[in-house]
């Protein structure tokens, strides 16, 4: 297969896989727990559109059996066209047939795959990093829907997973949700130096590094980067976003897998805070959180109404959502001319994704218990 040319590099505004979970786990659970008046209120603010097209699993009027949801985070900024954004976070959310357990499986954005052709945009297909699928699908008028459709088709072609629903959340929405919660409590598990946030000698915010076309970082003279030291602390929305964006200067040198782990920890923290007594018992705060979530989402419900989704997923809560690391959080890299360093999924990771199609992820985890993510409240144990 011939590698497709890499698309132009753009300034990154990282979003996180976790916003999805807020939508389809914590938020659903919180809505049910808080009562239908809040559910009706927030549902009115959710944007709904066809994201999956013909590649969606059979559309249905109710939800039975196992469910797969494609969760996508993009790096699009408000001043950036849709077709300039790649999918920075890609998660397969698998809900078991009894709708009581959910698994969040992150697919590394640099995973090397074959991208199918997209006649709608004139894209001929080829080998590339999986996060390029969203950008190629969104070009020439494809927009967000085109990006999600090509990404979903890429995952189905590569791993056999068909999705029943999909969701996309924007950067501003992510930060606003955390701020609406009043921040989030997280345990930092490794010294993390920010390449995006820093301070000048006068205490003014400034970017501490520049990045050249080859992805190399260059310190900016007179700017000290923000450093997140190990330990538990309360983070604002801006701080949480900055922390989970980082992959370059992590103390463990674990790159994207470290960022993936931090995003999963963040998800668990948001789930815990959304379902906490302090949030559920405060009608004004809960209203603000859920309305913010609704405004930040674009969803394809697969033909099922949002109230039905909420009712059928009422058995899910923060404790029933499990995060899983692909490749057990270890690198399996290959250098591809024109694409740079790409990730390969191991045979075990491909088995994990196959087990999504047979609703047997629990069996896989029983055999690979160390693949579980987590640790939002106990970072030192990771």
Helix-strand makeup class: alpha+beta
Read across the widest sheet, the strand sequence of neighbours is 1-15-7-2-3-4-16
Gyration radius from CA atoms, angstroms: 20 Å
Indicate the mean pLDDT.
77
The level of helicity is 25-40%
Q: What string gives the helices and strands in order?
A: HHEEEEEEHHEHEEEEEEEHHHHEHEEEHH
Helical stretch tally: 12
The CATH architecture designation of the domain at 18-180 and 292-375 is 2-Layer Sandwich
How many β-strand stretches? 18
Distance between the termini: 39 Å
Question: Which regions contain 5 or more consecutive residues with pLDDT less than 50?
Answer: 7-38, 77-81, 375-382
Main pleated sheet: 7 strands, mixed
CATH topology category name of the domain at 18-180 and 292-375: Nucleotidyltransferase, domain 5
Outline type: globular
User: Strand share of the residues?
Assistant: 15-25%
CATH class of the domain at 18-180 and 292-375, anyone?
Alpha Beta
Domain Cell envelope-related transcriptional attenuator: 86-273
Pfam families: LytR_cpsA_psr
Family: Belongs to the LytR/CpsA/Psr (LCP) family.
Transmembrane segments: 16-39
Question: Overview of this structure, please?
Answer:
By secondary structure, the protein is an alpha+beta fold. The chain has a domain of 247 residues: Nucleotidyltransferase, domain 5 (2-Layer Sandwich). It contains twelve helices and 18 strands. It has a seven-stranded mixed sheet with strand order 1-15-7-2-3-4-16, sandwiched between helices. Helix 1 packs parallel to helix 7, helix 2 packs parallel to helix 9 and helix 5 crosses helix 6. The C terminus is likely disordered.
